[in-house]
Structure prediction request, 613 residues.
Amino acid sequence: MRRGLILALGGLMLAGHGPALAGDPEAGRKIAVMCRTCHGIDGYAQIPIAPHIGGEPKEYLETQLMAFKTGAREHEMMTVVTAGLSAEQISDVAAWYASHSATATLPDGVTAADAPPACVSCHGADGISVLLNAPNLAGEVNIYIDTQLKAYRVGKRKHAIMSEIARDLTDQEIRDFANWYADVKLEITPPQ
Amino acid sequence: MQVGRLCSALLASTVLVAPAAAQDNMDKLTNMQKTDATFTFVEQDGERAQALKAILEHINVPDGFEVSLYAVVPDARSMAVAPQGTVVFAGTRKDKVWSIVDRDRDRVADEVKDFAPSVTFDIPNGPCFSRDGFLFIAERNRVLNFPAAEFFFEGPDPAVAVVVPQGELIPVEEESFNHTARVCDVGPDGKLYISLGQPYNVQPLEKIEMYDEIGIGGIIRMNTDGTGREVYTRGIRNSVGQDFHPETGELWWTDNQVDGMGDDIPPGELNRQTAAGQHFGFPWTNAGVEIVSEADFPRPEGVEFIEPQLELTAHAADLGMSFYKGASFPEEYQGGIFWAQHGSWNRTTPVGARVMFTALDPETGDATGAQVFADGWLDEETGEYRGRPMDVAFLKDGSMLISDDFAGAIWRIAYNPAPSE
Prediction:
């Protein structure tokens, strides 16, 4: 049931969401100097509270940055950062990080079949997103994923699919899902 | 003694009334049973240690001091040195607490492994000891007590008691990742003091009163069994460093300031609290800078805002602090305060990533002024960090430990005057 719903909604999201601006990765690289202390210049996070964003779908990054800018999503730091960025700059910096490629390797002793079924149709078994508007989860700090799932569960963060999925999860399920993706090895390669 | 009795009583009662929900291994541990948990060891001699040692040449310390690598400790945050001095515990903003052991006392750690791997930790940033050896760990939304942790850390299943159950430190709706790194200390009154950062840049007006009542954006204190909770400090934005003056018993603490107002405001803060319940101004003021106006939201009645002792470089992120109670540093440092500046994240020119010091005026007891004690973790040319000091603590020999959650290390600074010729 739940999986069917996810796939249906996922399909809608994919169809209904196109990039607003092309985005210039080179211009974005200069903006990324603002991001690097937390997210790294290549998008490999430098601190636990920040997610890896190198090789993320541009559409996802752009949507989230605009959500911070408009107040639809709130974060102590990102709300401040995005307030000073234009829509074009957001598109550029999203293009910079999206121009990297992310590759994921499952840890020894598990296979894709062991991945949490509730997550795989959007985020992939290895945490590399299979949708334009879903983030990669590979190698994220478990507490980052844990925090986001709990934010969806209590309604602080809202999303058509994620709010539904997170609503009935227990703390233990949340941590298990988070651990699955945290244990994946992520590599980010800059554009050639 | 009193703490000991309280804890024994608490342990006994926990055994009798085991919690119904088995989140992790807590049921087994509170009943002193074994789990199948195993340790994670951190290699101390490999490439990582070599890479960290290469940072040392960049670190500047005053004449007569030496800096060295004490341990490789991933994500090392707030530290607590055990009463016997054999083991140091370091929290993280992830899910590990590390035990760092120097058995041969050569001032280099021999073994680093995770503490209590049987417990599912959630941002266990803040470890602190009572004088009689109970280790408290303040997590995002729970506080645990590990009796005799200095001895039980050798096994994966140390005895544990719950001080504040999961979800009862703050309302779960107020949980965040940022500004959720708790620090704790056991005060001279034997009570447990825990800082609770408020999760926003500036909290929304409609949350001001609720936060004030709970102590979010403040420091709370409670008995070590979790009873008698009260708000001890009001009007803080996000404090991640505190210590008690060893003689007066006054609580001093650092604060982190509002972002997005410009590179040079508001200044960072070092604060001195002389009485319970004092209000330090946030969110109305931040180091004297107005944030929320009286017109936006009335100030609480009957309180006078306490001004900071020191106004510090804006956005440098003043975090862990400690009074110097050792004997091996020169006279000028005796009784003063050391603290870590984590370094800025959104300033045009980065600042911080250094260890600061202030002496106290012998007459007034006030801080006399901040000076840089150790720096070089920030590459001034590229603006990139080599490391980011987060907390300072002291070994029994009076030497300083500095945790670094960026490099994943604990550094040591010792005073070793060259022999006179």
